[in-house]
TrEMBL record, chain B:
N-terminal signal peptide: none
Name the UniProt record assigns to this protein: ABC transporter permease
Membrane topology listed for this record: Multi-pass membrane protein
Main location: membrane
One Gene Ontology term, aspect cellular component: plasma membrane
MF terms in GO: transmembrane transporter activity
Length: 424, 430
């Protein structure tokens, strides 16, 4: 995410001589956003380490006789923290203990697998943020999309390839409808999207639960469990690097979605309208933009993107049939991903991969070291919190403030933009 | 709400809102949809229920004053309700056509009638325990109401509070731990308030001092609290059970008042948490609208520049209001552990904070209205429980869905563009 948040170089004077420019550059780098991001990650990891150490049994034991043998405590702390973080790293990026490269690199593909739905849903939430709306309806949109895509995938018979595409389209449509309802209600009646998305989460949950236990709908034939049958092989995302890795072609759809959102927001006419409405709906209306339509389109596209996460879950990750817990909390995680990525497509892409790494590594850490995966959630939250508050990080590490003269103005504008989200 | 947009429209943006004098058909349309729904449910689907009786039990066995059970013929009641609802929808359309304001009484009457019809239809052939339904409503609403009050207080001061979920969860966690460790549930309540206050102080510090986007901080604080409490639960509480077994507050009967038919059991046979809730609702309402401090809080939330000009310290006022909001929300968190379950569990608030947030918006940032909205959600939750026991004529999932669908309709039809405090979510930079 550092790449997306780098500040534009401050307008420097050409009169600056070499050394001055060097100092200014150094100030920009150390005080700038890239540095802040790195420090935020570091600091979050330190807090996580403290939590791991404090709750470690061995550490608590050795702390009892700290004054007689302090090295025991220090060693216990080191063992706990280093063990946990090395497991986290080896579970998410590269496994040093593996015998050959192809096995050693497997964690990285796991990271990308976990990142896939996070990126898709993050793009959806981020897009809504850019239009000044807060989409907490990820759960409902994912469930509906998963239901639609899943039904096409196991109940319809089509040739390979076409089947997959039809299933994806069905899922996208499902997500778009579920999100579009929100946009439509907001546009036509002014209903607040926060309420409607939360309510639609429940409606979708119960709808899917009903379909899952209704024979002929989503329930597997001959079964009493609220679970669908397995997806047809023709409608499943193929593995990207063969059967030894879990990574599937769904990742490519997410890359495509990221490019699409980037194109939409920064190159298309509609995207310009989106951003204009997000910054100031009244000004956009005066400028001739149909704000109501923008709300509708934005929520529909947002819903479709979040739906893509649900599609990836049922056609890529869990192809053996799914229950009503298929969303796996991704709809809510996506909010954090979108915030960390600052609602920019490639920022969200990077943030999604980071969070995917945390998820993959977290499971490995829990299995290997017995450290609950929840610590990962804490670290993620702290990262976003610190990245969102550059002045705090600067104050903590005594960093200089880049471009001091223009900072307050920019910050004021920025907060106002993002605040449109709830201050409607 | 139509009146609000009408009155504000010509003053601010006369060009882009020519709709100022146009009739708003929202309420008739909403009434109409519900009337059609009731025709379908009670008359078309209800045909099969001819001859069935729906019984409403109005008293509990231990009440002093026993009210007789009311048995209504299901189908006839349904037809009667549906017809009256259709007539009321027509009346509202006529009122709008005549440019007359639709009286609020009509809306309330409409909602009550629909409810009676719905309950009669759902309970065909069985008995609905009305006091039980309402007692559970008040109990289940308690955390929502506390959360909503905390949210109202914070947002009235101009700080968007998405962190209600985190405040509730922090309150639940710390009350369980402290109450178990000390053996004193009252200390648990205190700990819940402190925990809620701490969460909102972090919110306030980031928002007021570091000017971070308020929604971001709120969302992140939720995640942080969920992560922290889950982590500590797995690492500390799960291995040693004696840290997670607080005493649950018993239900206390208020003498005399608890013997009033229906109202008595519903309002005055509750735990101390609910009694504190009554006080909290009154205090927040009184504090916000009847005291100098409340006027300042609202001023800071509506127009911080103006407030600053007359010498109010904007950020300090906001800080205090947000912290107080956290105290209230945190107290509500204690309901989960000390009022209901008797042990902390991972993510046990289960999205209640977000529903409380919805109640804040639904209740138009007003403590009493937000309380009513929270009660509606509590009623919805409890209706699911009651109907789950007595069984219902349609698949239970649709019954479970209905309250949320009704809320969407209500938000779209009646509330509409609910107006947040003008400076809600905007940092104040001198």
């Amino acid at each position: 995410m550092s790449a997306t948040t780098t500040t534009a170089p401050a307008g420097r004077d050409s009169r600056m001589d070499g050394s001055e420019r060097w100092i200014q550059t150094l100030r920009d780098i150390t005080g700038g956003s890239a540095m802040i991001s790195v420090l935020a990650v570091l600091f979050a990891l330190v807090v996580g380490a403290i939590l791991i150490a404090f709750t470690n049994e061995r550490v608590q034991e050795t702390a009892g006789y700290f004054f007689s043998r302090p090295t025991d405590l220090l060693r216990a702390v080191w063992d706990a923290v280093a063990g946990a973080y090395s497991a986290l790293f080896q579970g998410s990026i590269y496994n040093f203990r593996a015998t050959n490269f192809l096995t050693a690199i497997r964690p990285l593909t796991e990271t990308l697998t976990f990142a896939t739905p996070l990126i898709a849903a993050g793009l959806g939430v981020g897009l809504a943020f850019r239009v000044g709306m807060f989409n907490i309806g990820g759960r409902g949109q994912m469930l509906i999309a998963a239901g639609a895509a899943g039904w096409v995938a196991f109940a319809v018979e089509l040739p390979a390839g076409i089947h997959l595409i039809v299933a994806i389209l069905a899922g996208l449509l499902g997500g778009a409808i579920w999100g579009g309802i929100v946009g439509l209600l907001k546009a036509r009646t002014g209903a607040h999207e926060v309420i409607v998305t939360i309510m639609l989460n429940f409606v979708a949950l119960y709808l899917i639960q009903f379909l899952l236990r209704t024979p002929g709908a989503l329930q597997a034939p001959g079964s009493n469990n609220p679970k669908t049958p397995a997806m047809a092989a023709t409608a499943v995302f193929p593995d990207l690097f063969g059967p030894r890795y879990n990574l599937h072609a769904g990742f490519l759809t997410v890359v495509a979605a990221t490019i699409f959102v980037w194109w939409l927001l920064s190159r298309s006419n509609l995207g310009f309208q989106f951003r204009a409405v997000g910054q100031n709906p009244s000004a956009a209306r005066v400028a001739g933009i149909n704000v109501k339509n923008v709300y509708l389109y934005a929520m529909a596209i947002s819903g479709a993107l979040v739906g893509l996460a649900g599609i990836n879950q049922v056609l890529g990750t869990v192809t053996t049939g799914f229950g009503s817990g298929i969303d796996a909390g991704i709809g809510f995680d996506a909010i954090t991903v979108a915030l960390l990525g600052r609602s920019k497509p490639w920022g969200i892409f990077a943030a999604g991969i980071l969070f995917g790494a945390f998820k993959a590594g977290g499971f490995a850490m829990q299995a290997a070291e017995g450290v609950p995966i929840d610590i990962v959630v804490v670290v993620q939250a702290l990262i976003v919190l610190f990245i969102a508050a550059p002045p705090l990080v600067r104050a903590m590490f005594h960093l200089p403030t880049p471009g001091t003269s223009r900072k307050p103005k920019i910050r004021a504008v920025k907060t106002r933009q993002t605040n449109e989200v709830v201050a409607k | 709400m139509s009146t609000l947009t009408q009155s504000s429209a010509p003053a601010s943006t006369p060009i882009v809102k020519p709709a100022a004098q146009i009739r708003s058909w929202k309420i008739p349309i909403t009434f109409g949809s519900f009337a059609v729904l009731s025709l379908f449910l009670f008359v078309v689907l209800g045909r099969g229920l001819r001859g069935e009786l729906s019984t409403f039990r109005l008293s509990e066995g231990r009440d002093l004053i026993q009210l007789p059970e009311v048995a209504l013929p299901t189908f006839a009641t349904g037809v009667f309700v549906a017809v009256v609802l259709v007539l009321m929808a027509a009346a509202s359309a006529w009122l709008v056509y005549r440019h007359t304001k639709i009286p609020i009484v009509l809306t309330i009457l409409f909602a009550l009638l629909f409810l009676v019809g719905f309950l009669a239809w759902a309970a065909s052939g069985s008995t609905i325990p009305v006091p039980g339904l309402l007692i559970g409503t008040v109990t289940l609403s308690a955390p929502l109401i506390f959360g909503a009050l905390g949210g109202v207080l914070s947002e009235r001061a101009g700080v968007v509070n998405v962190a209600i979920e985190g405040q509730l969860l922090a309150g639940a966690f710390s009350s369980a731990v402290v109450a178990s460790a000390t053996g004193n549930p009252y200390l648990g309540l205190l700990a819940a308030m402190v925990a809620g206050a701490l969460v909102s102080m972090v919110l306030a510090a980031f928002v007021l001092k570091y000017l971070v986007d308020q929604v971001i901080v709120g969302v992140v604080l939720n995640v942080l609290v969920i992560g922290l409490t889950s982590f500590l639960y797995s690492q500390v509480l799960a291995p040693s059970a004696n840290l997670n077994s607080p005493d649950v507050f018993p239900r206390l009967n208020v003498p005399f008042l608890s013997e009033i038919p229906i109202i008595g059991p519903v309002l005055f046979r509750q735990t101390i948490i609910v009694y504190v809730m009554y006080v909290a609702i009154a205090l927040v309402y009184f504090g916000l609208f009847r005291t100098k401090w409340g006027l300042r809080v609202r001023a800071v939330g509506e127009h911080p520049q103006a407030a600053d000009t007359v010498g109010i310290n904007v950020n300090r006022t906001r800080f205090i209001a947000v912290t107080l909001g956290g105290v209230i929300s945190g107290f509500g968190g204690a309901y989960f552990t000390l009022g209901a379950v008797g042990a902390f569990n991972k993510e046990m608030t289960n999205g209640m904070g977000f529903i409380a947030l919805a109640a804040v918006i639904f209740g138009q940032w007003h403590p009493i209205k937000a309380t009513l909205a929270a009660l509606l959600f509590g009623f919805a939750t409890n209706l699911q429980n009651v109907l789950g026991i007595i069984g219902s004529p349609v698949p239970s999932e649709f019954m479970l869905m209905l309250p949320y669908v009704v809320t969407i309709f209500a938000v779209a039809g009646f509330v509409g563009r609910s107006r947040a405090p003008a400076a809600d979510g905007k940092p104040y930079i001198k």
